């Protein structure tokens, strides 16, 4: 390692060593100033600048820097990978020969220059201190890597989104470790790669995150970015992977599944694009997991994730970041915050429920602090390991309290909720629940009102079971609408290749090219932007939309079947029957199409078969059947029902009532009662 020395000898007194790009930089500062602000504080400032903690440094500079620096920040704010440098200002230096703090590392070409007065103010203003309250540079001794021998587990096959199991399963010795080892073996990260790690704060997150950190170190990772207190919402993690050009990420979450010691735990792993690992990778991980005879883990930690800062472990950088900062910055670029803020200030209300999941701090900062939503309208915003006993699934059944609020006389203009890991959303208005299939269709229709989408959307996509309302709008706009299997990972290639700019699933998931995950809070902001721009209620916007395109009533009926064999029997029977169904008559309509959905990815030509049975009738009705891939016990049969109504007089009916006959028809065709013993769905969503 070469030593670079700051040439500013007249400031020489104290040295701080900071590791950048394998070189050691030394910076100097006047002792008087150091005494005044304290060494730890100084280390934090210098560390923040040097380690390119964009938000910290930008925040600091914007608040305390000189006007010239502020201008520079304004120009460069969007350039995330380089905090850049502030040219030395000769005139300023002459004016403040002894009070200039200067930092210089030739190698990374960064040079900062701040006034002593600015530093002093910064030191005093602890309230706005974006950095940690502990020294930022803690050096750990070199870790030793241990190889632990154990036998493989046979059940680490990932489902629709990641590996989900009961907490007790994950608590078995070596269980998490072998899975992580299989992932590292398959990913084959380049030495020194950057990895993002975070979770939704559920029970076992704290234990699991330490294991992942130690295994990442053993796998040769050079830089780990981890959310403060281990927290990162799934969409924010995806954004962070992209913004920091990480090689991938581990997201510790079982998403909308219940938490707590008797609940579920899970892991998703994402690749460099920020998207969930594609099928061929998850298959390879499963294969690797069954053949393991041990794993590699570093003998280090536990790592302190309680405050923002950086730690070094023999050159490996462990960076604890503010989980919200990068995400919030992106949201500000996409949406018209001024307009939304004005709308809220003029008396409109948003009621948001974070369900004690990951989005609480995001909602607080973005909806509350930035946009001015009332504090009492942000519910359950502290993340809890058991989600406070709530089932963190934003749907009208698990969020009945929101449906009730919206039915009352003092209903908010908009109510919304997100799930445990923050990728799902539910949107309601006074007396009205916006169906997810309608939501994404209307978002497309209203996209010109939203700054980030004003320039047009190249194409859209929906998962196969999702209502075809999106297709109707896409057709009108003359853009392609892709139909993909269930699971967000199938959207990733389309997003990455620029074919689509908006996509959604019936399971309360919507997203865009800003991320490679569905995004709950983003959807809330999108709708706030549309409401503020149109000045009409959610219901009014919907009825207008339906009168233009027709209303596609939609409902999902879930059947919880404890015996997986019985659930399989339903699907097997259907599969046989649909083979000869196309062209026949069913309930007075012609069967336009009946098949087991197959998908060929238009980007990489990969094939996915057996993705759900669909029966499409020529009168606008459709039934889809598939088994859930996210549960941890038994099986859940999902029956998706859709019915188009073109006549305006039939566009304001109750969905439950209207869809019931189609639900009955689906039960008969699939022989659900006789094969499973269930007389009715376990849930209608
Ligand atoms: C469900 C939804 C699917 C969603 C998946 C992950 O999968 O149907 O649309 O992508 O959950 O969402 P399944 O296989 O149970 O139907 V999340 O928020 O749990 O990551
Ligand atoms: Co989720």
Can you tag this structure with a few keywords?
binds alpha-D-glucose-1-phosphate-6-vanadate, binds cobalt (II) ion, 685 residues, seven-stranded antiparallel sheet, disordered N terminus, alpha/beta, eight-stranded mixed sheet
Could you provide a short overview of the structure?
The protein contains 23 helices and 33 strands. The protein is an alpha/beta fold. Helix 8 (175-187) crosses helix 9 (205-218), helix 8 (175-187) crosses helix 11 and helix 13 (337-345) crosses helix 19 (520-534).
What does this structure look like?
The protein is α/β, with parallel strands linked by helices. It contains 23 helices and 33 strands. An eight-stranded mixed β-sheet has the order 6-14-15-10-9-11-12-8, with helices on both faces. The chain has a seven-stranded antiparallel β-sheet with strand order 26-27-30-31-32-25-33. A five-stranded mixed β-sheet has the order 17-16-18-19-20, sandwiched between helices. A hairpin with a 6-residue loop joins β18 (414-418) and β19. α8 crosses α11 (279-290). It is globular, with a radius of gyration of 27 Å. It starts with a strand and ends with a strand. Residues 1-44 and 46-140 have low confidence and may be disordered. The protein binds alpha-D-glucose-1-phosphate-6-vanadate and cobalt (II) ion (CO).
Please describe the topology of this protein.
Layout (H helix, E strand, L loop, with lengths): L2 E3 L8 E7 L2 E7 L1 H7 L1 H12 L3 H11 L2 H10 L13 H6 L4 E6 L4 E6 H9 L13 E3 L4 E5 L13 E4 H4 L4 H13 L6 E6 L5 H14 L4 E9 L2 H10 L4 E5 L11 E8 L7 H12 L3 E5 L10 E5 L2 E6 L3 H10 L2 H9 L4 E4 L6 H11 L7 E2 L20 H8 L6 E5 L6 E5 L2 E3 L1 H11 L13 E4 L5 H9 L3 E4 L4 H8 L5 E4 L3 E4 L7 H15 L3 H12 L1 E11 L2 H15 L6 E2 L2 E8 L2 E2 L6 E2 L4 E5 L3 E7 L7 E11 L9 H16 L1 H5 L6 E2 L1
Parallel strand pairs: 1-3, 6-14, 9-10, 9-11, 10-15, 16-17, 16-18, 21-22, 21-23
Antiparallel strand pairs: 2-3, 4-5, 7-13, 8-12, 11-12, 14-15, 18-19, 19-20, 23-24, 25-32, 25-33, 26-27, 27-30, 28-29, 30-31, 31-32
């Amino acid at each position: 390692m070469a030593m670079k020395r700051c040439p500013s000898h007249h400031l020489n007194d104290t040295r701080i060593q900071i590791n950048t790009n394998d070189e050691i930089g030394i910076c100097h500062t006047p002792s008087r100033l150091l005494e005044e602000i304290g060494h730890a504080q100084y280390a934090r400032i210098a560390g923040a600048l040097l380690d390119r903690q964009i938000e910290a440094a930008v925040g600091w500079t914007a608040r305390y820097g000189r006007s010239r620096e502020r201008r520079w920040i304004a120009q460069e704010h969007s350039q995330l990978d380089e905090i850049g440098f502030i040219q030395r200002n000769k005139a300023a230096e002459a004016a403040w020969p002894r009070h200039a703090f200067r930092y210089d590392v030739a190698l990374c070409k960064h040079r900062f220059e701040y006034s002593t007065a600015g530093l002093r103010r910064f030191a005093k203003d602890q309230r706005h201190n974006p950095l940690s309250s502990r020294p930022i540079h803690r050096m750990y001794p070199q870790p030793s890597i241990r190889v632990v021998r154990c036998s493989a587990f046979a059940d680490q096959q990932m489902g629709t989104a990641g590996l989900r199991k009961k907490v007790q399963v994950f608590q078995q010795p070596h269980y998490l470790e072998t899975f992580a080892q299989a992932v590292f073996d398959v990913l084959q990260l380049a030495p020194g790669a950057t990895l993002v790690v975070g979770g939704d704060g559920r029970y076992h997150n704290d234990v699991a995150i330490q294991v992942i950190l130690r295994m990442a170190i053993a796998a040769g990772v050079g830089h780990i970015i981890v959310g403060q207190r281990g927290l990162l919402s799934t969409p924010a993690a995806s954004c962070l992977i992209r913004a920091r050009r990480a090689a991938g990420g581990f997201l510790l979450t079982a998403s909308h599944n219940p938490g707590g010691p008797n609940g579920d735990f899970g892991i998703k792993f994402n690749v460099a694009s920020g998207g969930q690992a594609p099928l061929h990778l998850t298959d390879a991980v499963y294969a690797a997991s069954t053949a393991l005879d041990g794993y590699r883990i570093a003998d280090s930690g536990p790592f302190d994730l309680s405050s923002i800062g950086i730690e070094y472990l023999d050159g490996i950088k462990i960076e604890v970041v503010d989980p919200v900062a990068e995400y919030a910055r992106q949201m500000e670029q996409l949406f018209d915050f001024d307009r939304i803020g004005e709308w809220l200030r003029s008396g409109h209300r948003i009621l948001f429920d974070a369900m004690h999941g990951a989005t609480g701090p995001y909602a607080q900062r973005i909806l509350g602090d930035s946009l001015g939503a009332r504090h009492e309208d942000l519910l359950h915003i502290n993340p809890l390991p058991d989600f406070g006993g709530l089932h963190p699934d934003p749907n009208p059944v698990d969020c009945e309290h929101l449906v009730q609020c919206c039915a009352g006389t003092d209903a908010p203009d908009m109510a919304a909720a997100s799930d445990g890991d923050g990728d799902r959303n539910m949107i309601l208005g006074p007396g009205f629940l916006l169906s997810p299939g309608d939501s994404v269709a209307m978002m497309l229709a209203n996209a010109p009102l939203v700054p980030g989408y004003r320039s047009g959307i190249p194409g859209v996509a929906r998962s196969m079971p999702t209502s075809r309302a999106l297709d109707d709008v896409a057709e009108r706009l003359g853009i392609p609408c892709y139909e993909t299997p269930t699971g967000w990972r199938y959207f990733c290639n389309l997003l990455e290749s620029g074919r689509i700019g908006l996509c959604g699933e019936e399971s309360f998931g919507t997203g865009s090219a800003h991320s490679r995950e569905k995004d709950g809070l983003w959807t809330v902001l999108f709708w706030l932007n549309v409401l503020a721009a149109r000045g009409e209620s959610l219901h009014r916007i919907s009825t207008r939309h339906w009168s233009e395109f027709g209303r596609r009533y939609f409902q999902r009926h879930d059947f919880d079947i404890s015996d997986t064999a019985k659930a399989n029997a339903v699907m097997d029977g259907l599969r046989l029957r649909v083979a000869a169904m196309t062209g026949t008559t069913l309930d007075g309509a012609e069967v336009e199409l009946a098949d087991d959905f197959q998908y060929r990815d238009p980007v990489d030509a990969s094939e996915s078969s057996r993705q759900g049975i669909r029966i499409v009738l020529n009168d606008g009705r459709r039934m889809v059947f598939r088994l859930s891939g996210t549960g941890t016990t038994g099986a859940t049969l999902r029956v998706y029902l859709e019915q188009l109504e073109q006549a305006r007089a039939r566009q304001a009916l109750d969905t439950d009532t209207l869809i019931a006959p189609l639900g009955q028809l689906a039960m008969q065709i699939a022989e659900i009662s006789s094969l499973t013993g269930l007389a009715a769905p376990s849930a209608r969503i």
